[in-house]
Fold each of these.
Amino acid sequence: MHMITAKGLNVRHGQKAILHGVDFQARSGEITVVAGPNGSGKSTLVRAISGELAFEGSVTINGVDASAMKAWEMAAVRAVLPQETLVTFPFTAGEVVRLGLTTGIFSNRAVRNQMVEAALERVGLAGFSRRIVHELSGGERQRVQLARVLCQIWEPVGEEGPRWLIMDEPVSSLDVRHQLAVMELARDYAAGGGGVIAVMHDLNLSALYADHIAFMKDGRFVAEGTPAEVVTAEVLEAVFDCALKPGLPPRDGIFVLPQSAASQPTNLSLAAE
Ligand SMILES: Nc1ncnc2c1ncn2[C@@H]1O[C@H](COP(=O)(O)OP(=O)(O)OP(=O)(O)O)[C@@H](O)[C@H]1O
Ligand SMILES: [Mg+2]
């Protein structure tokens, strides 16, 4: 029961069908990565299972029908890092992070301030709470938003069961060290009993950290499994329409060398090493 499941999800934008009867599941204690080409429907899926978008079909969170959950119940059990967040007012980093604490659990102001500081520290932004968000770099802003999301569901398990950290491209603006730090944070959250769903474009990071990868294409899942099962040349070519060559690096894990933007590499002698 400690899962997020979606069954038969259909999402339309106007006349256009975006998700076509999608089934999906993610287990707590694991990192589930959703990957696939631009426009394939990943963010749409994330928004649907987060209750932010109208859909046909069913979504359950820890066995509870999401459509029957009140907004505050949803907010207590899952937090969502959107692909993009527009901050229109010159808030400080601390004020943005504090928005994650609106569930009312922490009524004591000193405790709230400690939480904000702890969350900023957790994303490598200790001492940033008074900085104006507009004056931060893109990667710093992305981490401020992650700190906000973390504040909302700080403990990976609550009375209602596992909590869910849902992130749409959490490392897209980050340098390599911070990419690793965020993936390790996700791993810690899952190891603590929480669930993590992350939309990712980086196949190497996905292969390294995901317990389960689901590949989406044209509004449908076309392959899913452990990295070892699905990070294969055949699956990657079918998903991304370009030639990719998975291999084993000198240490544990799988890595992917991009070969060519075309499905069939034009220079096979180079590609074949
Ligand atoms: N509000 C909208 N109105 C109309 N079409 C939309 C809307 N939002 C998304 N779409 C379309 O739905 C499809 C899926 O979009 P979605 O944002 O889910 O893709 P994605 O897989 O997250 O892509 P990316 O990797 O670029 O973030 C795209 O074709 C997009 O143009
Ligand atoms: Mg997206």
Note: Confidence is low (pLDDT under 50) at residues 268-273.
Amino acid sequence: MPRYEFRCRACGATFEVKRPMARAGEPASCPQGHADTVKLLSTVAVTGRGGGGSGAPSEPAAGGCCGGGCGC
Ligand SMILES: [Zn+2]
């Protein structure tokens, strides 16, 4: 479940709220009970780095018969 970070404008506290994405836009009240809060950036973990890396496998070159000195 994603977490959303809020900041209370009344007391300045920041707090996290876990809620389903469908309710992401709903206001949250501060742990102290203040209702005047603003939503900060969501702290949803971003996964999925592509995992690049040098990947091209070296193709076998010059195989078979005519690669060498067989004279065909
Ligand atoms: Zn507060």
Note: The CA atoms of residues 50 and 56 lie 15 Å apart.
